[in-house]
Amino acid sequence: xxxxxxxxxxxxxxxxxxxxxxxxxxxxxxxxxxxxxxxxxxxxxxxxxxxxxxxxxxxxxxxxxxxxxxxxxxxxxxxxxxxxxxxxxxxxxxxxxxxxxxxxxxxxxxxxxxxxxxxxxxxxxxxxxxxxxxxxxxxxxxxxxxxxxxxxxxxxxxxxxx
Length: 162
Hints:
Elements: H1 3-7, H2 25-32, H3 40-51, E1 57-58, E2 62-63, E3 69-70, E4 74-76, E5 81-86, H4 104-127, E6 131-136, H5 141-152
Parallel strand pairs: 5-6
Antiparallel strand pairs: 1-4, 2-3, 4-5
């Protein structure tokens, strides 16, 4: 192979790309703007809980069994309650989630891994004695507050209404 051939960029196949190419600059800006924490639904829930007098930690890392780290959106440390506010797209909401139509080679496995990671986090937290509340971003804030309050106040129904 000559030195000239080494400098030429090789065309990449989709399987080799780490991230898909953006459809356009607007889409690229939109994806960069997605937040890991402090999303609108999460902030609304935290604000309402705080207004009601609840104190908590936000985006607090929990180190569980060796190698398992979880970052719930809202953590009541003394009560051992972890609250997650899940985005409909990112966590495959049964009501609003949909199969990606572009770059499905990238998005489908990524979304599947997100759901698997959620289930593993739930199991690890439960094994460590924590109660988990998962709330979809589309849920009404007042309904979410009622569910969180019921768990924090020792009721044990943590199932999410799908």
